[in-house]
Amino acid sequence: MTTIKDVAKLAGVSTATVSRVMNGTGYVNPSTKEKVNSAIKQLDYRPNDVARSLYKGKSKMIALFVPDIMNPFFPELARAVEDVTNQHGYTFILCNTDDDFEKEQTYLNALQQKSVDGIIIVSSTITKELVGKISTPIIALDRIIGSNISSVTVNNREGARQAVQHLKSVGCKRIAHICGPEHVSNTAKRLKGYLDEVKNEDWFLSSYIVPGEYNFETAVQATKKLLTDHTEIDGIFVWNDLMGIGALKGAEELGINVPDELSIIAFDGITVGETTTPSLSTMAQPIYDIGTQAAEMLLEQINNSGYKTKREEFTVQLIERQSTRKRG
Ligand code: RIB
Protein backbone atom coordinates (compact mmCIF):
# COMPACT_ATOMS: atom_id res chain seq x y z
CA MET A 1 0.00 0.00 0.00
CA THR A 2 1.30 3.46 -0.91
CA THR A 3 2.35 5.56 2.07
CA ILE A 4 2.93 9.27 2.60
CA LYS A 5 6.69 8.52 2.46
CA ASP A 6 6.35 7.16 -1.07
CA VAL A 7 4.59 10.35 -2.13
CA ALA A 8 7.27 12.53 -0.48
CA LYS A 9 10.08 10.55 -2.16
CA LEU A 10 8.53 10.79 -5.62
CA ALA A 11 7.84 14.52 -5.21
CA GLY A 12 11.25 15.16 -3.69
CA VAL A 13 9.87 16.81 -0.55
CA SER A 14 9.40 15.97 3.16
CA THR A 15 6.37 14.09 4.52
CA ALA A 16 5.48 17.26 6.43
CA THR A 17 5.22 19.14 3.11
CA VAL A 18 2.97 16.41 1.72
CA SER A 19 0.81 16.71 4.84
CA ARG A 20 0.58 20.50 4.47
CA VAL A 21 -0.50 20.17 0.86
CA MET A 22 -3.13 17.55 1.72
CA ASN A 23 -4.52 19.43 4.71
CA GLY A 24 -4.23 22.92 3.25
CA THR A 25 -2.32 24.06 6.32
CA GLY A 26 0.79 26.29 6.19
CA TYR A 27 2.45 27.77 3.05
CA VAL A 28 3.65 25.61 0.13
CA ASN A 29 4.89 27.29 -3.06
CA PRO A 30 2.80 26.54 -6.15
CA SER A 31 5.42 24.49 -7.99
CA THR A 32 6.00 22.25 -4.96
CA LYS A 33 2.23 21.90 -4.49
CA GLU A 34 1.98 20.83 -8.13
CA LYS A 35 4.71 18.21 -7.70
CA VAL A 36 3.04 16.78 -4.58
CA ASN A 37 -0.41 16.62 -6.16
CA SER A 38 1.08 14.98 -9.24
CA ALA A 39 2.80 12.34 -7.06
CA ILE A 40 -0.43 11.69 -5.11
CA LYS A 41 -2.28 11.18 -8.40
CA GLN A 42 0.42 9.03 -9.95
CA LEU A 43 0.60 6.74 -6.88
CA ASP A 44 -3.17 6.91 -6.27
CA TYR A 45 -2.39 7.69 -2.61
CA ARG A 46 -5.34 7.70 -0.16
CA PRO A 47 -4.41 8.46 3.48
CA ASN A 48 -6.09 6.08 5.96
CA ASP A 49 -8.08 7.40 8.92
CA VAL A 50 -5.19 6.96 11.33
CA ALA A 51 -2.72 8.80 9.04
CA ARG A 52 -5.14 11.63 8.53
CA SER A 53 -5.95 11.99 12.20
CA LEU A 54 -2.24 11.73 13.19
CA TYR A 55 -1.22 14.45 10.74
CA LYS A 56 -4.11 16.80 11.32
CA GLY A 57 -5.38 15.62 14.71
CA LYS A 58 -8.78 15.57 12.97
CA SER A 59 -10.57 12.76 11.19
CA LYS A 60 -13.16 14.99 9.44
CA MET A 61 -15.83 12.79 11.01
CA ILE A 62 -18.84 13.88 13.09
CA ALA A 63 -21.17 11.49 14.91
CA LEU A 64 -24.80 11.72 16.07
CA PHE A 65 -26.17 9.55 18.89
CA VAL A 66 -29.92 8.82 18.73
CA PRO A 67 -31.86 6.59 21.18
CA ASP A 68 -34.23 4.94 18.69
CA ILE A 69 -33.78 4.86 14.90
CA MET A 70 -37.23 3.21 14.62
CA ASN A 71 -38.88 6.49 15.70
CA PRO A 72 -39.24 8.72 12.59
CA PHE A 73 -38.36 11.80 14.65
CA PHE A 74 -34.70 10.79 14.76
CA PRO A 75 -34.08 10.11 11.05
CA GLU A 76 -35.63 13.53 10.32
CA LEU A 77 -33.22 15.02 12.87
CA ALA A 78 -30.28 13.07 11.41
CA ARG A 79 -31.07 14.37 7.92
CA ALA A 80 -30.38 17.94 9.03
CA VAL A 81 -27.18 17.07 10.90
CA GLU A 82 -25.87 15.09 7.92
CA ASP A 83 -26.67 17.87 5.43
CA VAL A 84 -24.78 20.50 7.43
CA THR A 85 -21.77 18.35 8.29
CA ASN A 86 -21.42 17.06 4.71
CA GLN A 87 -21.56 20.65 3.40
CA HIS A 88 -18.50 21.34 5.57
CA GLY A 89 -16.57 18.30 4.32
CA TYR A 90 -17.24 15.99 7.27
CA THR A 91 -18.24 12.34 7.12
CA PHE A 92 -21.43 11.75 9.13
CA ILE A 93 -21.77 8.74 11.44
CA LEU A 94 -25.15 7.75 12.93
CA CYS A 95 -25.06 5.75 16.20
CA ASN A 96 -28.26 4.11 17.49
CA THR A 97 -27.84 3.75 21.27
CA ASP A 98 -31.22 2.40 22.44
CA ASP A 99 -30.75 4.82 25.35
CA ASP A 100 -28.39 2.13 26.72
CA PHE A 101 -25.50 3.51 28.82
CA GLU A 102 -23.20 0.57 28.00
CA LYS A 103 -23.84 1.01 24.29
CA GLU A 104 -23.19 4.73 24.56
CA GLN A 105 -19.86 4.07 26.27
CA THR A 106 -18.87 1.57 23.58
CA TYR A 107 -19.65 4.07 20.85
CA LEU A 108 -17.77 6.85 22.66
CA ASN A 109 -14.65 4.67 23.01
CA ALA A 110 -14.74 3.59 19.36
CA LEU A 111 -15.23 7.14 18.10
CA GLN A 112 -12.34 8.44 20.21
CA GLN A 113 -10.10 5.72 18.73
CA LYS A 114 -11.00 7.10 15.31
CA SER A 115 -10.30 10.67 16.49
CA VAL A 116 -13.82 11.79 15.64
CA ASP A 117 -13.94 15.58 15.56
CA GLY A 118 -17.24 16.05 17.39
CA ILE A 119 -20.40 14.32 18.63
CA ILE A 120 -24.02 15.46 18.86
CA ILE A 121 -25.84 13.46 21.52
CA VAL A 122 -29.56 12.81 22.07
CA SER A 123 -29.64 10.86 25.33
CA SER A 124 -31.33 10.60 28.70
CA THR A 125 -28.92 7.98 30.01
CA ILE A 126 -25.45 9.40 29.30
CA THR A 127 -24.02 11.33 32.24
CA LYS A 128 -22.27 14.69 32.37
CA GLU A 129 -19.50 12.91 34.30
CA LEU A 130 -18.83 10.54 31.39
CA VAL A 131 -19.04 13.33 28.81
CA GLY A 132 -16.78 15.50 30.97
CA LYS A 133 -14.01 12.88 30.79
CA ILE A 134 -13.54 13.20 27.03
CA SER A 135 -11.97 16.09 25.15
CA THR A 136 -14.05 15.61 21.99
CA PRO A 137 -16.44 18.54 21.38
CA ILE A 138 -20.02 17.57 22.36
CA ILE A 139 -23.42 19.16 21.76
CA ALA A 140 -26.53 17.94 23.63
CA LEU A 141 -29.55 17.85 21.32
CA ASP A 142 -33.20 17.59 22.34
CA ARG A 143 -32.27 16.88 25.98
CA ILE A 144 -29.85 18.71 28.27
CA ILE A 145 -26.88 16.66 29.58
CA GLY A 146 -25.18 19.14 31.88
CA SER A 147 -24.90 22.90 32.52
CA ASN A 148 -21.43 23.12 30.95
CA ILE A 149 -22.43 21.28 27.76
CA SER A 150 -23.99 23.32 24.95
CA SER A 151 -27.50 22.27 24.05
CA VAL A 152 -30.35 22.70 21.56
CA THR A 153 -33.87 21.97 22.84
CA VAL A 154 -37.49 23.12 22.42
CA ASN A 155 -40.01 24.70 24.81
CA ASN A 156 -41.46 21.38 25.96
CA ARG A 157 -43.51 22.64 28.89
CA GLU A 158 -45.06 25.57 27.02
CA GLY A 159 -45.73 23.33 24.02
CA ALA A 160 -47.62 20.87 26.22
CA ARG A 161 -49.66 23.71 27.70
CA GLN A 162 -50.61 24.90 24.21
CA ALA A 163 -51.64 21.35 23.25
CA VAL A 164 -54.10 21.15 26.16
CA GLN A 165 -55.34 24.69 25.54
CA HIS A 166 -56.08 23.64 21.96
CA LEU A 167 -58.08 20.61 23.15
CA LYS A 168 -60.13 22.90 25.39
CA SER A 169 -60.67 25.31 22.48
CA VAL A 170 -62.26 22.58 20.33
CA GLY A 171 -64.67 21.66 23.13
CA CYS A 172 -62.94 18.95 25.22
CA LYS A 173 -64.22 18.73 28.82
CA ARG A 174 -62.21 15.76 30.20
CA ILE A 175 -58.58 15.65 29.04
CA ALA A 176 -56.04 12.86 29.66
CA HIS A 177 -52.31 12.55 29.00
CA ILE A 178 -50.36 9.56 27.68
CA CYS A 179 -46.87 10.37 28.90
CA GLY A 180 -43.45 9.32 27.69
CA PRO A 181 -40.78 7.14 29.31
CA GLU A 182 -39.94 8.20 32.86
CA HIS A 183 -36.15 8.41 32.26
CA VAL A 184 -36.50 10.92 29.42
CA SER A 185 -36.19 14.51 30.66
CA ASN A 186 -38.78 15.75 28.14
CA THR A 187 -41.40 13.50 29.73
CA ALA A 188 -41.41 15.49 33.00
CA LYS A 189 -41.45 18.83 31.15
CA ARG A 190 -44.45 17.93 28.99
CA LEU A 191 -46.25 16.40 31.97
CA LYS A 192 -45.77 19.69 33.86
CA GLY A 193 -47.26 21.58 30.93
CA TYR A 194 -50.28 19.25 30.91
CA LEU A 195 -50.72 19.64 34.68
CA ASP A 196 -50.40 23.43 34.42
CA GLU A 197 -53.59 23.34 32.37
CA VAL A 198 -55.65 20.66 34.21
CA LYS A 199 -54.56 20.33 37.84
CA ASN A 200 -57.04 22.96 39.05
CA GLU A 201 -59.98 21.61 37.03
CA ASP A 202 -62.69 20.04 39.23
CA TRP A 203 -62.86 17.07 36.87
CA PHE A 204 -59.12 16.22 36.95
CA LEU A 205 -58.10 12.73 38.18
CA SER A 206 -54.50 11.49 38.50
CA SER A 207 -55.63 8.32 36.71
CA TYR A 208 -56.04 10.50 33.60
CA ILE A 209 -52.22 10.24 33.29
CA VAL A 210 -50.99 6.92 31.83
CA PRO A 211 -47.49 5.86 30.66
CA GLY A 212 -46.98 5.24 26.95
CA GLU A 213 -43.34 4.08 26.85
CA TYR A 214 -42.19 5.76 23.64
CA ASN A 215 -43.74 3.56 20.99
CA PHE A 216 -46.79 2.79 18.88
CA GLU A 217 -47.90 -0.54 20.38
CA THR A 218 -47.79 0.49 24.04
CA ALA A 219 -49.72 3.63 23.11
CA VAL A 220 -52.46 1.53 21.50
CA GLN A 221 -52.86 -0.53 24.68
CA ALA A 222 -52.56 2.50 26.99
CA THR A 223 -55.27 4.33 25.03
CA LYS A 224 -57.65 1.37 25.11
CA LYS A 225 -57.21 0.95 28.88
CA LEU A 226 -57.58 4.68 29.50
CA LEU A 227 -60.80 4.98 27.46
CA THR A 228 -62.23 1.78 28.93
CA ASP A 229 -61.53 2.90 32.50
CA HIS A 230 -62.71 6.48 31.82
CA THR A 231 -65.47 6.60 29.20
CA GLU A 232 -65.91 10.31 30.03
CA ILE A 233 -62.57 11.28 28.47
CA ASP A 234 -63.02 13.31 25.26
CA GLY A 235 -59.51 14.67 24.74
CA ILE A 236 -55.99 13.19 24.93
CA PHE A 237 -52.60 14.92 24.78
CA VAL A 238 -50.00 12.31 23.76
CA TRP A 239 -46.25 12.70 24.50
CA ASN A 240 -45.06 12.17 20.89
CA ASP A 241 -46.50 11.64 17.41
CA LEU A 242 -45.55 7.96 17.16
CA MET A 243 -47.61 7.31 20.29
CA GLY A 244 -50.27 9.70 19.00
CA ILE A 245 -50.73 7.41 16.00
CA GLY A 246 -51.04 4.55 18.46
CA ALA A 247 -53.76 6.48 20.28
CA LEU A 248 -55.67 6.91 16.99
CA LYS A 249 -55.44 3.14 16.48
CA GLY A 250 -56.57 2.42 20.05
CA ALA A 251 -59.65 4.64 19.67
CA GLU A 252 -60.46 3.01 16.34
CA GLU A 253 -60.26 -0.49 17.89
CA LEU A 254 -62.77 0.64 20.53
CA GLY A 255 -65.08 2.06 17.87
CA ILE A 256 -64.61 5.62 19.17
CA ASN A 257 -64.74 8.28 16.43
CA VAL A 258 -61.90 10.80 16.26
CA PRO A 259 -62.61 13.75 16.36
CA ASP A 260 -66.41 13.57 16.71
CA GLU A 261 -66.25 11.73 20.08
CA LEU A 262 -62.58 12.11 21.02
CA SER A 263 -59.90 14.65 20.11
CA ILE A 264 -56.22 13.67 20.02
CA ILE A 265 -53.14 15.89 19.78
CA ALA A 266 -49.51 14.81 20.05
CA PHE A 267 -46.01 16.34 19.89
CA ASP A 268 -43.08 16.31 17.39
CA GLY A 269 -44.41 17.15 13.92
CA ILE A 270 -43.06 14.08 12.12
CA THR A 271 -44.17 13.81 8.50
CA VAL A 272 -46.13 10.58 8.92
CA GLY A 273 -48.67 12.45 11.11
CA GLU A 274 -50.05 13.99 7.91
CA THR A 275 -50.79 10.57 6.40
CA THR A 276 -53.02 9.00 9.07
CA THR A 277 -56.83 8.96 8.90
CA PRO A 278 -57.74 11.22 10.58
CA SER A 279 -54.54 13.22 10.18
CA LEU A 280 -52.86 13.92 13.52
CA SER A 281 -52.80 17.35 15.16
CA THR A 282 -49.47 18.03 16.81
CA MET A 283 -47.16 20.50 18.52
CA ALA A 284 -44.53 20.50 15.79
CA GLN A 285 -40.87 20.78 16.67
CA PRO A 286 -38.74 22.57 14.02
CA ILE A 287 -36.90 19.26 13.58
CA TYR A 288 -34.68 20.28 10.66
CA ASP A 289 -33.86 23.62 12.33
CA ILE A 290 -32.80 22.10 15.64
CA GLY A 291 -30.65 19.54 13.84
CA THR A 292 -29.05 22.29 11.76
CA GLN A 293 -28.46 24.47 14.82
CA ALA A 294 -26.78 21.62 16.72
CA ALA A 295 -24.49 20.84 13.77
CA GLU A 296 -23.52 24.51 13.32
CA MET A 297 -22.81 24.89 17.05
CA LEU A 298 -20.62 21.77 16.96
CA LEU A 299 -18.65 23.02 13.95
CA GLU A 300 -18.08 26.33 15.73
CA GLN A 301 -16.88 24.44 18.84
CA ILE A 302 -14.52 22.27 16.75
CA ASN A 303 -12.97 25.22 14.95
CA ASN A 304 -12.98 27.87 17.67
CA SER A 305 -10.97 27.06 20.82
CA GLY A 306 -12.44 30.10 22.55
CA TYR A 307 -15.97 28.70 22.12
CA LYS A 308 -18.38 29.52 25.00
CA THR A 309 -21.12 27.09 26.14
CA LYS A 310 -24.48 28.02 24.59
CA ARG A 311 -28.11 26.96 25.17
CA GLU A 312 -30.53 27.40 22.30
CA GLU A 313 -34.26 26.78 22.80
CA PHE A 314 -36.58 26.66 19.81
CA THR A 315 -40.39 27.13 19.84
CA VAL A 316 -42.84 24.43 18.85
CA GLN A 317 -45.83 25.32 16.65
CA LEU A 318 -49.45 24.10 16.82
CA ILE A 319 -50.39 22.20 13.65
CA GLU A 320 -54.17 21.67 13.58
CA ARG A 321 -55.31 18.64 11.59
CA GLN A 322 -58.39 16.39 11.49
CA SER A 323 -57.85 14.68 14.87
CA THR A 324 -58.88 17.84 16.74
CA ARG A 325 -61.43 19.33 14.37
CA LYS A 326 -63.87 21.57 16.28
CA ARG A 327 -67.07 19.74 17.14
CA GLY A 328 -70.59 20.66 16.23
O1 RIB B 1 -40.48 11.03 19.52
C1 RIB B 1 -39.23 11.06 20.15
C2 RIB B 1 -39.25 12.02 21.28
O2 RIB B 1 -37.99 11.95 21.91
C3 RIB B 1 -39.45 13.44 20.78
O3 RIB B 1 -40.55 14.04 21.42
C4 RIB B 1 -38.17 14.14 21.07
O4 RIB B 1 -38.37 15.41 21.69
C5 RIB B 1 -37.39 13.20 21.93
O5 RIB B 1 -37.37 13.64 23.27
Characterise this structure.
- With 328 residues, the protein is α/β, with parallel strands linked by helices.
- The chain folds into three domains: 4-47, lambda repressor-like DNA-binding domains (434 Repressor (Amino-terminal Domain), Orthogonal Bundle), CATH 1.10.260; 56-154 and 287-314, Rossmann fold; 156-285, Rossmann fold, CATH 3.40.50.2300.
- The chain is 44% helix and 16% strand.
- It is built from twelve helices and twelve strands.
- It has helices at 4-11, 15-23, 30-43, 49-56, 73-87, 101-113, 128-132, 156-169, 185-198, 216-229, 241-253, 287-303; strands at 61-66, 91-96, 118-121, 138-141, 151-154, 175-179, 209-211, 235-238, 263-268, 281-284, 311-314, 317-319.
- Helix 9 links the parallel strand 6 (175-179) and strand 7.
- Helix 1 (4-11) packs across helix 3 (30-43).
- It is elongated, with a radius of gyration of 25 Å.
- The mean pLDDT is 92.
Query: Might you state the CATH topology name of the largest domain?
Result: Rossmann fold
Helix percent band: 40-55%
- What is the CATH-assigned architecture of the largest domain? 3-Layer(aba) Sandwich
Q: Decide which structural class fits the backbone.
A: alpha/beta
Major pleated sheet: 6 strands, parallel
CATH class of the largest domain: Alpha Beta
H/E topology pattern: HHHHEHEHEHEEHEHEHEHEEHEE
Name of the CATH homologous superfamily of the largest domain: Response regulator
Number of helices: 12
What share of the residues does DSSP label as strand, in percent? 15-25%
The number of strands is 12
Shape: elongated
Kindly give the count of domains. 3
Present as ligands are: alpha-D-ribofuranose
Question: What number is the mean pLDDT?
Answer: 92
The Cα radius of gyration reads 25 Å
Uncertain residue ranges: none
